[in-house]
User: Fold this.
Amino acid sequence: MSFGDPNNPYGQQPPQGQPGQQAPQGVPPQYGYPQQPPQGAAPQYGYPQQTPPPYGAYPPPGMHAPGMPGTGMPPLAHWGLRVGAALLDGLIIAGPMYALIGLGAAVASDESTEAIAGILSLIGMLYSLGMLFFQLYREGTTGQTIGKKIVGISLHREADGATLGFGMAFVRKLAHILDGIPCYIGYLWPLWDEKKQTFADKVCGTVVVKANNG
Assistant:
C-alpha cells in the first residue's frame, strides 16, 4: 500500500512559501514569496524629489529662486559695489564728451577755431550717446556694463536669473527716474532693503548680484 510520494518516505508535505523567504533563482515570485527591492536601492515614495542647485548657480526652469543669497542665487551685490560701477560707467560715457567740449572751448578764439570747437563738441556728444546705448546693450545681453564687469557685479531678473535683454534694460534705465524723485532716496534704498534693490529694481523685478568673471 502506497502512502504518498515514494521519494518522501515520511509522508510530509513539501513546505510552502513562508514570509521572508527568497524565491528560488529563475522562478518568478509567487504568493508567499515577498518581493524584495534591488540590493542597494532605497524605496521611493511619492513624486521624485528635485535636487537643489549648487550654491552660486541659478536653478533650472520650474524651480523657484527668490532673490536671496543661499537659495540658488549668487550673493547680492552691496551698495558700495553698485556705486563704484555707476561712477565708472558715468566716467566712461561722459568723460570723453566733456574732455572734447573742454578742448573745443580752449581752442576757440576766432570764427575758424569756433567751428573746430563745434565739431569737437558734436563728436563728444555723439560718442556719449553711442556709448550709452552700447552699455545698455551689454547690460541687457550679458548682465554687465563695463563698470559692472570691472567691479564684479551683474544684473539679472529676480524670478529666474536670466538677463533682461536690451528693451528691458532700457526700461529699467528710465525707471531710475523713480529713484531720484523722492530726494534720491531710491538710490539709497539698497542700504537697508532685504534684497538690496532700488525702486527701479523693484518695479522691473531685477536684482544685482556678485559675479564670477573668471
About this structure: The longest strand covers residues 153-157. Residues 54-59, 61-67 have pLDDT under 50 and may be disordered. The beta strands are 153-157, 206-210.
